[in-house]
Write the structure tokens for this entry.
Amino acid sequence: MRLVRAIWKLLVGVKDALVLLLMLIFFGGIYAALSAGSPPVRDGVLALTLNGSLVEQASKPSASALLSGQGERVRQYQLRDLTAALDAARTDDRVKAVALDLDGFLGGGGAAIGELGAALSRVKASGKPVVAYATGYTDGSYQLAAHASEIWLNPFGTVAVRGPGGKNLYYKGLLDKLGVTANVYRVGTYKSAVEPFIRNDMSPEAKAAGQALGGVLLQNWRDDIVKARPAAKIDAYLKDEVGAVKAAGGDLALAAKNSGLLDQVADRRAYEIHLAKLGGEDDKAAGGYKSIRLDSYLKDKVDRSPRGPIGVVTIAGEIVDGKAPLGTAGGDSIAAAIRKGLRGDDMKALVVRIDSPGGSVLASERIRQALLSVKEKKIPIVVSMGSVAASGGYWVSTPASYVFAEPSTITGSIGVFGILPSFQGTLAKLGVGADGIKTTPLSGEPDLLGGPSPEAGALIQAGINSVYGKFLGIVAAARHKSPAEIDKIAQGRVWDGGTAHQLGLVDGFGGMDAAIAKAAALANLGDERGVRYLDRPTSLSEGLMAAIAGSDSDEAGTTDAFASLSPTPASDVSRALAEVQQIMAGPSIQVRCLECGPSAGVTVKGDVPHGVLATIAKWLWAS
């Protein structure tokens, strides 16, 4: 019988192995078929149809999100891919023009949009037409369009510039009604990430700092428009958009054209006929013109896995403990990628691209220590700040020999905070008691049912103070100043890149090209500019999910102007609640910038998150 059992186990093992092998072959075949589905590149117009958001590092869709059918994942376009495609198109005879379709563009960070705009200007300078089209332009989409040779607008469309600003939600009144106490611990006059939990409005200090930052960002936006499109009477339009519309007889599109913001007011069919004249007619193709799909062009012209001597590591999204997928800055994941880059002797310099509002203190320090190990090997480090490099995002920049930022970069926010919700008021409202014993002053602390004791609160605040002191010391050593000097410009204050340069928090202005050139110079590489990306490699399952998610058409969706210009109330509430959940569910001590906006991540259309009550309920269950 033992022999029979052994034979049976062997047969079962062989069967399981064959099933696994067949499944791998099956899914590998699907992945290969989807990956190879792009048409070949022929002469025509490069179709830059941006139906999604512009990001530094695109996140990968999860199988659960795609298979559940609960929402449509918003597509993400990686900045370095778009700039590489545009730079290749300048000298590629097959590319006759670039069609910049912005009807589905959902925006991006200010610095990222500026870099993409500069790449569009380089194509325009090469003599090739760049033609932009949209039903409605707003801040980000118009900034990109301004770099085009021609700007087209649908007759039913408009250019509506909102500028930086808007409102945040404040929960103090709601928490009081629910009996929830937000126990806040912080250092920094301007560390306003905690204000929604302890106030019903902005503090005067936060409002003054935010107003100053918004004014500078608007000025930077305006300067880029004027430089890219001198004919635009942008100052007069910003001052009185309503007056411009009245002068045009109530015609929104004509008002924009009369202000020099546009070249043509025409429907999409006229736009497509114009593209056919530029790139050639093709009656069988959508739109009737010869086009080159972006994904096909990237596969044909852009090396996604270069092996140059300059390493590039990207720190994008919220900084979290442990491992995390691409698009989120997992401390362990990024440290492992840096260690992998150190293997061997072929990496001669490292560029760190940062687009993060911060997050976990421990994860930020984990990344910093990994970068210090690079520095110990005498490998020069250069930081390139993207749209946001604040709080923990600034923490991880400190090992660099040189720090670049853009004038529109949001940085600083050198401060620390912690939040612990407690529910003694909620339990009292429900008629529920909480009692127990203590053997030491810290038994059962922090007490989320009865509120943290004074001893626990004092220890937590001491921890906050200690982390802030370390933060000041790290920045002071990196910027060759005293901790007292850094404290004067820290206190959680958020700065624009231009002011940060004046204060000595960054060394110079420039994007990735400038950072790569500086790294090459510091490493004595001469004219060498070859890079290698230290991103975590994509697994088979991630590749399969990405191929499925990315198999949608590049055709622009039809939308009315105001639908594209105005976020839905659900999206505003979604964004606000996401901030609440990230802060309250995060680590007890955080170096995070709330003013910097939500960190990049996967957005699901139509996915309205749980409301405030559900979030409170989640805290109650978690406690």
